[in-house]
Amino acid sequence: MLKQRLLSALVLIPVVGVLAWLGGWWFTGLMAVAAGLSAWELLKMLSLDGHFQPLMLPGILLAALLVLLPQGEAVQSLLVLAILAGLTGVLFLPRQSAPTDLLITLGAALYLGLTLRYLSLLRIREHGLMWLTVTALTVWIMDTGAYFIGVRFGHHKLWPRISPKKSWEGFWGGLGSATLAAALMAHFWLPGVSAWQGALLGVLVGCVGPLGDLSESLFKRQSGVKDSSQLIPGHGGVLDRVDSFIFVAPAVYLLTQMLGW
Question: pTM for the whole thing?
Fold first, then answer.
């Protein structure tokens, strides 16, 4: 398992790094693929109990399209009209569960497409590569800190109904690690952002990042699976790798917009 994880990381990290460095449609395309694959994994998990039959291909395509769409009210209006047309079309589907199937499909696509889109928006802003790098490293450092502190000192369960292994000690370890890391990286790498402002960024990531992980844990617990898929050997699925960013990406982007960073 460890060998698989290392080999997968050796392949994926350079690919993601190069596409992030190139930016533009290269990175946006990567995010669209990630959103589409994550939507496939989520819809597949939600269909396992046999009560629902999500519209797999439309859900995948909509999640990817939401990432690719350019900004603008006209484009957003066209998207709303397309969704309303789809809702109308469900009246002609023969399955009794068709309305629920469609809403599950729409929910999964919007949940992933609209959130992962913010990673692309973060990349195209001024100094976008550095903002993306700092955000990603803060998330990974948070996860690492939470894991090791949780393993060593974790005794008080954070949310046992959803994720029995997570502890409050791990949460505070991840929060502290994210805060310190973001403060240092902001001071050295983000023009015009102080260490204190970077610490605020780290606190935000440390608080909202676990929500993405817990949300995916809830889906997996409902579906009775350990990983969202086996697409990435040793790491599970794409959704397993991006779950924290589902909450972190919009939060960081909106913070930078609100504070004018």
Answer: 0.89
